[in-house]
């Protein structure tokens, strides 16, 4: 059954393709992206103030380095962004010689290793991949991914999850918890059926996987064994990615998108592209900092 939980609109700025939410518990600040429009959103949750930063390029995710810097994953590489002035400095190219691809879903492992997904700009089959940015160097983990999504990690750091949305499959990968790097091959955890598709995910403190079901107006919660435990309603059809936010990490921020909607579809989905806060009766985990070296 679909649960209706208390839900508010955090931001009514409609994102073309909202993605990559994360939360800095040290400053009570949520961050997310509009990939298509090259925008970075910054929300001070305590005050409700929201700022929008123009990046000058498509970007999809960030990791906190320290109180002054972020690592931004963009269409052509990884950049250090200085919070004080927004200046961005290229650290590591990423498929910069392939104009047909861009970055997509990403998340930081507890070790500080950043898993980064790429995909074709037109979602071409097998055009993307998943990489690991580990101690300043980037390496290919899984090639020939069509739409990488749902990158997240179990609380003990020993398992990674990722999806290829085009294949409707969520995989589990055994990891070395100290490095965030694979120590085995991906295994199928679940196959998605029915309406919608597997988009972004995050793990809660109990190890359950909270997945945004693109095209179905909901968040699905799965156990580490792949059993669906809950489904929570989201007031936009194309929910894209969740993140736990708030001082006690008990609220779920959910991004959405109006991508590929014509005027009639947008009129029928007036909250398309908005960003929401859901009261979940669950607890998340603080996002780790990314380590550069």
Automatic annotation (TrEMBL):
Cofactor requirement: Zn(2+)
Binding locations of substrate: 102, 104
Alphabetical list of Gene3D superfamilies matching this protein: TolB, C-terminal domain
Segments forming a coiled coil: none
Keyword Zinc appears in the UniProt entry: yes
GO molecular function: calcium ion binding; gluconolactonase activity
SUPFAM superfamilies named among the record's database cross-references: Calcium-dependent phosphotriesterase (SSF63829)
Residue ranges of domain SMP-30/Gluconolactonase/LRE-like region in the record: 17-257
Binding site for a divalent metal cation: 19, 149, 199
Keywords: Metal-binding, Zinc
Co-factor remark: Binds 1 divalent metal cation per subunit.
Pfam families: SGL (PF08450)
Catalytic machinery residues: 199 (proton donor/acceptor)
Any single GO BP term: L-ascorbic acid biosynthetic process
The keyword ATP-binding is assigned to this record: no
PANTHER family per record: REGUCALCIN
Sequence similarity: Belongs to the SMP-30/CGR1 family.
Protein's recorded name: Gluconolaconase
Organism listed in the record: Bradyrhizobium forestalis
């Amino acid at each position: 059954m679909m649960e209706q939980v208390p839900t508010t609109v955090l931001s009514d700025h409609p994102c073309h393709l909202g993605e990559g939410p994360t939360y800095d518990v040290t400053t009570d600040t949520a961050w997310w992206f509009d990939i298509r429009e090259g925008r970075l959103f910054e929300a001070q949750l305590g005050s409700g103030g929201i700022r929008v930063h123009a990046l000058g390029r498509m970007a999809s995710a960030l990791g906190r380095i320290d109180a002054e810097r972020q690592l931004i994953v963009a269409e052509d590489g990884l950049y250090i962004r200085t919070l004080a002035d927004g200046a961005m400095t290229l650290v590591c190219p990423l498929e910069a010689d392939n104009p047909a691809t861009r970055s997509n879903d990403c998340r930081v492992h507890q070790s500080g290793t950043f898993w980064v997904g790429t995909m074709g700009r037109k979602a071409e089959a097998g055009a993307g991949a998943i990489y690991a940015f580990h101690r300043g160097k980037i390496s290919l983990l899984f090639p020939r991914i069509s739409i990488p999504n749902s990158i997240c990690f179990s609380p003990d750091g020993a398992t990674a999850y990722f999806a290829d949305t085009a294949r409707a499959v969520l995989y589990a990968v055994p990891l070395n918890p100290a490095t965030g790097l694979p120590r085995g091959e991906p295994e199928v955890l679940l196959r998605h059926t029915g309406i919608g598709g597997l988009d972004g995910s995050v793990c809660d403190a109990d190890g359950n996987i909270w997945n945004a079901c693109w095209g179905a107006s909901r968040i699905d919660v799965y156990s580490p064994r792949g059993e669906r435990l809950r489904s929570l309603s989201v007031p936009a059809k194309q929910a894209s990615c969740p993140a736990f936010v708030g001082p006690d990490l008990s609220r779920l921020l959910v991004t959405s998108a109006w991508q590929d909607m014509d005027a009639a579809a947008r009129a029928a989905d007036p909250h398309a592209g908005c960003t929401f806060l859901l009261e979940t009766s669950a607890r998340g985990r603080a996002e780790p900092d990314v380590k550069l070296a």
